[in-house]
Amino acid sequence: MGIFSMMKKGKTFVFLIFILSFFLTIGCKGAIQKQQKVTITLAGDSSVEEVFKKEIIPSFQEYWLGRYEQPIEFRESYEGPEVQVRRIIEGFEADIVVLPSLEHLNTLKEKRFITYVRENYIHRGIIASSVIAFGVHDGNPRDVFSWESLARKDIKIIGVDSKNSGIARWVLKAINIAALYLNKEPPKTMSADQFLRNIRENTILSKSDSYAAYSFNRGTGDVFITTEQEIKFQQQRGRPIEMIIPSPTISLEYPIVLMDKNVDDHNNREVAEAFIKYLWTKKIQKSLAYYGFRPVDEGVMEEFRRKFSTPSQLVDISVLKK
User: Fold this and answer.
1) Do residues 208 and 165 lie in contact, with contact meaning Cβ atoms separated by under 8 Å?
2) Does some domain include residue 1?
3) Is the dihedral of CA 121, 125, 128, 133 positive or negative?
4) Are residue 51 and residue 160 in the same domain, yes or no?
5) Do 138 and 212 fall within a single domain?
6) Which CATH number covers residue 177?
7) Strand, coil or helix: what is 204?
8) Within a domain: 177
9) Are 250 and 173 spatial neighbours (Cβ–Cβ below 8 Å)?
């Protein structure tokens, strides 16, 4: 074998080693980058705090770590929608937002914090729902069975200031719909105006949903107007509270959205999008059902059918605009 032939083969060998080393280096760097911790900032309504903290977030962290060997840290904030929207507008860089109020999400869209198009999401972005219900003390000692019961002079209602609660906004809508139907459906025991006036006079406002629940459980008031989910949650904690689903009632939804600008700035879009999709898996839908939320997955809803009664009159809130 000539020397030039040997030199040529030697150069080829060195070149192949160089190429192999280059791709191994790139691969190692990719693996290292994939293993670096990702941080997701979540802004949620206080009503979803328990299920997200105890079930949803730990489940997703375990899933993602097992699949990609990449740890995920969640920074969480749970407040009423008014507070959350104000904080975001003032500079709080949330990656994901979940609030029981499309009005507040529309505010963020108008101010160009999100490009929220419901049709682009699974189930139009809704992860769960609930209905407005009454919580009454064990045994229903004040015989509260209907909206008209709440207008009696001897009834005290525990409510929440709508400025601090997304749930309270839905409660107000339910009360207004009840007033409309009171005028339409016989027997007309009182005018809609009188009904609304009595409700206002009978209501004791709390500063937050959690404080309202705490006050009611301590014996304040006769009726706690809230969501079916909140009452079921209180029952699971052993509280002596019974539930009445009035007729008519309304359904409220829990949409979740991606804050497009923030996830791009934080370079965590892939994980944030995966987290949102994870909320519609059967495992998480079952967790939501266990915590009293009505799942949007039809199969899971059927599995938990006995847990959720069908309201006798579920009204679309669009009637308020007529």
Assistant:
1) yes
2) no
3) negative
4) no
5) yes
6) 3.40.190.10
7) strand
8) yes
9) yes
pLDDT digits (tens, 9 = 90+) for 116-164: 656 667 888 899 999 999 999 999 999 999 999 999 999 999 998 877 7
Asked if residue 216 lies in contact with residue 60, where contact means CB atoms within 8 angstroms, the answer is no
Q: Structural domain tally of the chain? A: 2
User: What are the strands, taking DSSP E only, across 48-119?
Assistant: 72-79, 96-98
Tokens 């605009």 identify what position? 321
Give a yes or no: residue 8 inside a domain: no
Decide if 129 contacts 207 (C-beta within 8 A): no
Q: What is the DSSP letter of 186?
A: S
Q: Which amino acid is at 84?
A: Q
Q: Name the residue range of residue 136's domain.
A: 130-251
Residues 95 and 186 in one domain: no
Burial of 30 (0-12, 13-18, 19+ CB in 10 A): exposed
Distance CA 216, CA 242 (A): 12
pLDDT, average across residues 181-190: 72
Q: Let me know the angle formed at the C-alpha of 105 by 254 and 49, rounded to the nearest 5 degrees.
A: 45
Rounded Cα distance, 52 and 293, in Å: 12
Q: Cα(266)–Cα(252) distance, rounded to whole angstroms?
A: 31
Average pLDDT, the chain: 86
Number of neighbours of residue 187 by Cβ within 10 angstroms: 6
Averaged pLDDT, 170-174: 93
Interatomic CA distance for residues 149 and 35, integer angstroms: 59
Q: Which residue has the tokens 């304040």?
A: 220
Closest residue by Cα to residue 222 from 145, 144, 169, 168: 144
Task: Based on the fold, state whether residues 114 and 263 are members of the same structural domain.
Answer: yes
Asked if residue 199 belongs to a domain, the reply is yes
Residue 121: φ, ψ to 5°: -105, 155
CA distance 298 to 294: 10
Place of tokens 């009035």: 246
Q: Which of 233, 251, 269 is the last residue of a domain?
A: 251
Residues 174 and 250: beta-carbon distance below 8 Å: yes
